[in-house]
Amino acid sequence: MTNKTQAAPELENIEFEAIDRSSFLMKGILAAGATYGAFAAGPMLRKAFAQDGGSEGDIEILNFALTLEYLETAFYEEAGKQAKLSSDVAALAKQFGEQEAEHVAGLTQAIEDLGGKPVEAPAVDFGDAFSSEDTFLQTGITFEDLGVSAYNGAGPMISSKDLLATAGAIVQIEARHAAAVRNAAGEPAAPDAFDPTMTVDEVTKAVTPFLAK
Amino acid sequence: MTVPTNPERNAIARAARDPFSRRKFLVLTGGTGAAGAFLAACGDDDDEGDTSASSTTEDMDTGGDPLAQFGEGDVGILNYALTLEYLEAGFYAAVAESGLFKGADLELVKTIGGHEQEHVDALLATLKDLGEEPAPEPEAEFPLDDAETVLMTAAEVENLGAAAYLGQAAAIENPDILAAALSIHSVEARHAALLNTLIGEDPTPDGAFAVPADAQTVLDGVQPFLKA
């Protein structure tokens, strides 16, 4: 549908790449400078892409995920206030928004447990995402697909097995959200047999339009 | 503005208009043995706020490890996944041939089945790359009585499949295999959410954090489909 590109023009420029640790590593390091601006992440991000980033690397990955979850939570919250939605879609938005808020709480706790400092919620700007149910759904698809690809991309970089399991428990919900929102929009719930993986750089680019300047 | 629906999606589209009727799901599952077994296997849902997804890594060293029959370490996990994907692909192929679905509904069955076949192919290729013997395709039989039963079984199998991958994620050692497993895991989750929606069940039955299933739970869950 055409609205997808209107809602997230940056997505057109994203190249989904094959699963490749080395290119992920390179891109992550190259993008680190640009990434800090959007995510206010610390210098340990580089470590997150090394073979074993340790708990500091995990903290950076968790903060990266936390920013995404803050964005998703705000998106559904704002939708509940601003968008005119049919009852079924409004129910989805409410349920999924509450679940994203649980992800925020869970990630915040995990970061604190590791002795890290959770990033603050970013200032958001969702543009005309709430002008109609269709623009809401299309932007929702963008966010949920993005969440899936971001977690799947970061998963192999997580050092702690427990945190990996937690990230898995979250990404499965992001995928379920993506499928349900896609279905509500009349689009294929699972567009491919393998979900694409995105790098931090690509995810950053994709969410930049939704961060307030 | 109403939810845009594809007018060609006859029965499935109608079912999808009633997305959150848990009651309907439970009434229907009461009558099917396979679905009942699934509910029994997966009925112990954790609290919604539970982030401590249980890890199976500690279980790997125990003598009764049900994964051991599939091989050691990552190879065992790959063959276990292959067995599950064989079951899924075989199920959708049988459904497609059953004549129970037509038009766009049949296309959806074929699309999901095609994904499962791609998973089979990818797992076979990975095992071949590793120089390991792939597990044989299991002989299976599925309830194909009517379209509704089939959708229930599909939802059951997909939810179990997603939980199965989640249950192994932390045990996978090779990062490339982990990355591949993650990209399959989220597709199983998409299938599960869609099918849950189509049968009137919550697309996120576990709440905000998906609950993993260990190998024994999963194998018990698919047991009704395996020919003795």
Instruction: Give the % helix of chain A.
Output: 55-70%
DSSP strand content of chain B: under 5%
Count the strands of chain A?
A: 0
Q: Give the class of chain A from helix and strand content and strand pairing.
A: mainly alpha
The biggest sheet of chain A, with number of strands, parallel, antiparallel or mixed sense and barrel status, is:
none
The total of helices of chain A stands at: 8
Radius of gyration of chain B: 17 Å
Q: Which structural class is indicated by helix and strand composition of chain B?
A: mainly alpha
Instruction: Please state the oligomeric state of the protein chains shown.
Output: heterodimer
User: How many beta-strand segments of chain B?
Assistant: 0
- Low-pLDDT parts of chain B are 1-62
State the low-pLDDT regions of chain A, or none: 1-51
Main sheet: strands, sense, barrel of chain B: none
- Overall mean pLDDT of chain A stands at 81
On the 0-100 scale, what is the average pLDDT of chain B? Answer: 80
Number of helical segments with 4 or more residues of chain B? 8
Separation, N- and C-terminal Cα atoms of chain B: 52 Å
Shape of chain B, please? globular
Q: Which value, in Å, is the CA radius of gyration of chain A?
A: 16 Å
